[in-house]
Amino acid sequence: MHGPAMSGWLLVALCGVTSAYCLLRMRSGPSEQRPVARGEALMGAGMAVMAVPAAVYDPPDWGWAVYAAVFGGAALRTLWWMRGSVRPWRSHTGSHHLHHLIGSVAMVYMALAMAPGVSGGGHAGHGAAGGMPLLTGVLLAYYAVYVLRVGVHLIPVPVVATASGGTLTWGALPELALACRLSMALGMLTMLLTL
Q1: 191 Cβ contact list (under 8 Å, min separation 6)
Q2: Range of 169's domain?
Q3: Which terminus, N or C, of the chain has the lesser number of Cβ atoms within 10 Å?
Q4: How far lies 61's CA from each of 97, 123, 174, in Å?
């Protein structure tokens, strides 16, 4: 594995492990964090599948429509959760919903770039897909700022005792959730750079 195939497999591994951890967080984390973990698990799984090197799996011509439908649905679901929220970025949960909305829109954008006839069409992550430079630039800037912001907050956090006297389960550790978000944002940056 050399060049794009190696980076593709590394991205598949990063996103796949992140998605699996988010699924575990969804089951063992605090109940108020489960919808966020569910959205992150979907995003990680979608990114992992999208990053599989084309030499191994070349999606069918209609594959881009499936991606667009799944992540378009995720964007609509996030908009539904955000309804009535005037400034979603002010609350912790609202900012996660806004981030998931932007991520879902970015995935739809990359799926549309995979469509046959769009600058050659092809498999995302391999330079065959083209896109609108302005939207790509805006998404790249957003994810670069997000990576820096999350990276600053990723400092060692002491283990917190729960009300029952035990410790948090490994699925609910805040630093692992931050690392999960950071790795998916880095994966999204990588995928957007290849457009």
Answers
A1: 11, 47, 50, 51, 110, 124, 125
A2: 4-193
A3: N
A4: 31, 10, 40
Question: 161-172 burial, b for 16+ CB within 10 Å, e for fewer?
Answer: eeeeeeeeeebb
DSSP 8-state code for residue 91: S
| Contact partners, residue 52, CB within 8 Å, separation at least 6 | 8, 12
Q: Give the tens place of pLDDT for each residue, 159-189.
A: 555 555 555 555 556 778 888 889 999 999 9
Query: Could you report the per-residue pLDDT of 86-95, keeping only the tens digit for each?
Result: 555 555 555 7
Distance (Å, whole) CA 176 – CA 182: 10
Tokens of 34: 């489960």
Nearest to 3 by CA among 127, 121, 187: 127
Rounding to the nearest 10 degrees, give the CA dihedral for residues 50, 54, 59, 61.
110
pTM of the model: 0.77
Domain count, the chain: 1
Average pLDDT for 142-163 = 76
pLDDT score at 76: 93
